[in-house]
Structure formats: C-alpha cells, structure tokens
Amino acid sequence: MKLPNLAVRVLFAVVAIPIVLGAVWQGDAALVLMxxxxxxxxxxxxxxxxxxxxxxxxxxxxxxxxxxxxxxxxDMMEGSFTPPIFALATVIVLIxxxxxxxxxxxxxxxIGAAATTILxxxxxxxxxSFAYALRHHNxxxxxxxxxxxxxxxxxxAWATDTAAYFAGKALGRRKLMPSVSPxxxxxxxxxxxxxxxxxxxxxxxxxxxxxAQLTMSRTTTITITIVISLAAQIGDLVESxxxxxxxxxxxxxxIPGHGGVLDRLDSLLFTIPVTYFVLTFPHVLIPVFR
Length: 290
Fold this sequence. Notes:
Blueprint: H1 5-26, H2 28-52, H3 59-78, H4 85-103, H5 110-135, H6 143-171, E1 175-177, E2 181-185, H7 186-212, E3 214-215, H8 218-246, H9 261-265, H10 268-279, E4 286-287
Helix pairs in contact: 1-2, 1-6, 2-3, 2-5, 2-8, 3-5, 4-5, 5-6, 5-10, 6-7, 6-8, 6-10, 7-8, 8-10
C-alpha cells in the first residue's frame, strides 16, 4: 500500500534527522563525508537543471570537485593542505575552460558549459563547506558547542520557512515574486522574518548559551537573524528560479516526499555561509563565563 505523501515526508525526517545530527555531533570525518555526499548529489542535480535549461556542463567533473571540496576545506583548516587555494582554484577554472574549448562546440554553448560546471561546485560544496567551518569554529569547545553553532542557521531557515508558509496561507495577499514562485507572498516573507527572530532569541538563550557557552546581545541577535532569514528566503527563490528555467517542479525525485537534495538544502546553501560570515565579525559571539 502506498503511503500518503505527508507520511512519507515524516518517515524520512525521522530517519534522516538523527543521522544528520549524529554527523554534526561527531564532526571531523563524519561531518565532512556527509557534506561531501550532499554536495556531490546537489551538484549532480544542478547540472541536470542546467541541461534542462539548454547548457552542457561537465557533470562528472563537477560532481567529483563537489565531493572533494569539503575534504580540502577540512585539510586547510587543519593545516595539512598547503597549495595556495587561489592558485589551485584558478588552475581548476582553467581546466574547465580548456575542456569547454576542446569538448564543446559553439552550438553546445562552451561559455555556458564552463560557467554552469563551476557554479555547480560553488553553489553546493562551496556553500555547504561552511558548515564544517562553523562546527570547528575558533570559539567551539566540544561537540555540544559545535552542534549548537551549526544548527543555528538550520533553525533560522526552518523557522523562516514555517512562519512564512502559515502566514502566507492565512494572510497572504500580495505576491512576492510571481514570475519565480507564484505561491510566495509579501506577508509570508515578513512573518517569516518575525518568526525567525522570535525563535532565534529563544535559541540563543536556551541552546547556544548552555551548550556552546556563547551568547549574543539581543540587538545583535535580532540584526543578524534578519540578515540570515532574508538569506534563507533568497536561497529558496534562487533555486525556484533555476527550476523554472529548467521547466521542472523538483530538482530530482531522490528524497521520498521531499523532491531532491537542492529542494531540501536551497535555504541552507545561503544561510550557512552567511551565518559564518556574520559570526566572524568582532564582538558578535560573546563567551559566557560561569
């Protein structure tokens, strides 16, 4: 008997959430492997979207680079990866451009092939790798602290999406960006930010402080949560724009009841690096001394 879609979604969440939390808690090899797999799957889906839009990316190369990048980030943070990162990145770009020259005809749009190959890696692995940097942030001491810090952008993205969905259903009148996502409303977007701020204030007080021994002032929490919440909504819209250009509803059918990897991670691809960026500003994270 086929399960209802909601039951499939809940069942998947029951299985997936402990695995994700376990990998984040363990950190290091477990986390980097999870990020590498998610990045590779996401890059594969992005390349499929690009193909649907008429481009011809080097899908295999993008998948390989996306899988390898989180490992490179880990090694760089540990000091065991010594090649200059900008030089290495430039060489990789040159390889992709050379591939476009030799393996893509003018009709196959070599510029688009090179651009979508590089974007596939940066959009997935380039953003998700910041989760490893958050987990092993300079302020982090122990698994509870690292887990609490990584989950901060995840919780904000979830709160934004949930509040926006219910507020949009109940109060939505004005369309936010109908050409990209016809169901999203301005009212939903506003309440998404408000809901995220409320949840963030509780999260800092009852999760970040006791488990990470870190806190933020109320003003700082509100300010950066607004930024991260807006990033979450932009991330959602960006992926919607990609899917609309490719003419598909979901990035794939890999995850039962949820669509593809990109459908689940679209907001996080923006919130995770943005969170890392704002938390690196001086005096944002304040150690709690008890």
